[in-house]
Amino acid sequence: MVSGVQAIAPPKSERKGMWEGQQISITRGPLKGYRGLVKAEDHNGVDVELDAMLVLHGPKRQWVELQDIQLE
């Protein structure tokens, strides 16, 4: 760090990914028909917190490929 210069973090909205915080529907794969909220993402997929009413068994959070989801 240069003396007298502070690093400024970008606004929270710029740090979030494009899909984070969005409601999605899963359109393909073993979780087809499920809905959830995107918690994290990378260039291959998203970490989704599934709707609790739809999940009877197993973890609420699942990793889903981008090609298998659609924004609601």
What's the structural blueprint in terms of helices and strands?
Blueprint: H1 12-15, E1 23-26, E2 35-41, E3 45-50, E4 61-65, E5 69-71
Antiparallel strand pairs: 1-2, 1-5, 2-3, 3-4
Note the main attributes of this structure:
72 residues; mainly beta; SH3 type barrels; 5-stranded antiparallel sheet; 35% strand; globular; disordered N terminus
* End-to-end gap: 43 Å
Number of strands: 5
The backbone outline, from C-alpha atoms, is globular
Annotation field: number of helices:
1
Order of helices and strands: HEEEEE
Helix content percent band: under 10%
Reported for the largest beta sheet, the result is:
5 strands, antiparallel
Q: Tell me the β content.
A: 25-35%
CATH topology: SH3 type barrels
Query: Mean pLDDT, as a whole number?
Result: 77
Radius of gyration: 16 Å
Helix/strand-derived category reads mainly beta
Main-sheet strand order equals 4-3-2-1-5
* Low-pLDDT segments: 1-15
CATH class, please?
Mainly Beta
CATH architecture: Roll
Overall structural domain count: 1
